[in-house]
Each structure stands twice: as C-alpha cells, then as structure tokens.
Fold this sequence. Notes:
Blueprint: E1 73-75, E2 83-85, E3 95-98, E4 104-107, E5 143-147, E6 150-155, E7 161-163, E8 175-176, H1 181-184, E9 187-195, E10 205-212
Parallel strand pairs: 7-8
Antiparallel strand pairs: 1-2, 3-4, 5-6, 6-7, 9-10
Amino acid sequence: MLGLQNGSYNEITNTNGSAHTGVTATLSGTGAGLKTGVYSFISPAAGGVHYGIHSEVLKPGATNFAGYFLGNVGIGTTGANMYTFPPSRGLNGQVLQTNGAGVVSWQNPGSFAWTTTGNAGTNGGSILVAGTNFIGTTDAQNIDFRTNNIYRGRFSSLGEFFVGTLNTVLAGDLMNAVGNVTFLGLQMATALMAVVCMDKSQLELPLLVEFKG
C-alpha cells in the first residue's frame, strides 16, 4: 500500500477563541496497573523513517511549544539506559550533571570544575599534606600556560617548571628558563626569605635576598 497512512487524524479549523485540543486522554481510578495516556509503537523491522511522535509548531514566541510537559521527562532506548530530567528549573549559572545512574540534576559548576571567577569550599592542603583539590593532571602529562594564546610556561610531568621554553637542557632541573636570556643572567648575591616556625613561641628570623643581573 502506497501513500500516507494515518491511524488517527484530527483537524480543527474553526476560528472561535476557545481552546482547541486534537487528542485528549483522561485516566483515573485507584488500580495499581500501568496507565498510559498515549502509546505509540513502531516495529524496528518496519521500513522508512520512524517518528513515534512528530510535532511541528513553528510559530515564534516563548509561549509556543512543540512539546510541553508538566512532570518528569525520561529519555532512553531501554529502562536500563534511560535518564530522567529534573522536574524544576535550575538556578542562574547552574548546569545539568548526570550521576551515571540515570539521574540528571542541576549543579553549580564550582562543585566539580574550576571556574574563571574562583571556587569556594576547596581543600588546599596544609604545610604537611597536599590538598585534595588541585589544578593539574592525574596522569603523566605536562601542563602548559598561555597568555594571548601564546605559550609562556610549563609544568612538566616530572615536576620541572619551564619559562619561555618547552624543555630543559638539565634533566631534573626544578626551574629552567632556557629561552629567557634575562632570567639566565640573574646572579643571586643575597636572598630574602622568612623562616616560619611551626612553634609560634619561637623567633621568626628574616633573611635578606637580592637578585642582581
């Protein structure tokens, strides 16, 4: 059989100001069985392009919808891979995040990512232990730093820090600036540092450090 085939077709053309509804389904009752307002099934073996529901609403405006739902919305191909959207709006700046088990919720980006305006509630460690929150990698990869999209420096996977260069001529060097003549020309004559004692009753001794080129 050729041509368009409709299981159900509705057309409303009157111009009065009352509400127009093409299909209405109302279910009630106290029974515990599954209740489905509209059910559409297309066999995977059927030919052609499949639309379980095809909605076309092209009128512009924030109050015109191709789909309008009051309640939870779940998407997936089976119950095992379905995820459910939250039923309410998030706050300004929040993003959707999945927990990997089908639950999608609104979250503040700062709770799981570094933001350009700063983070709060992070664990930066102490003088004895490293923090649990950090900027870096969890594998043996370098971290590069740029300004104006131009390479400026690098923390290598070995813990070395390079300024203006991509590598070092001295393996294991903590800090290197092979490409920076001014930096290489510095000669340390004296140094300024503070000896901070863990026991606050002890005297803190300042030492003087100077850099001369």
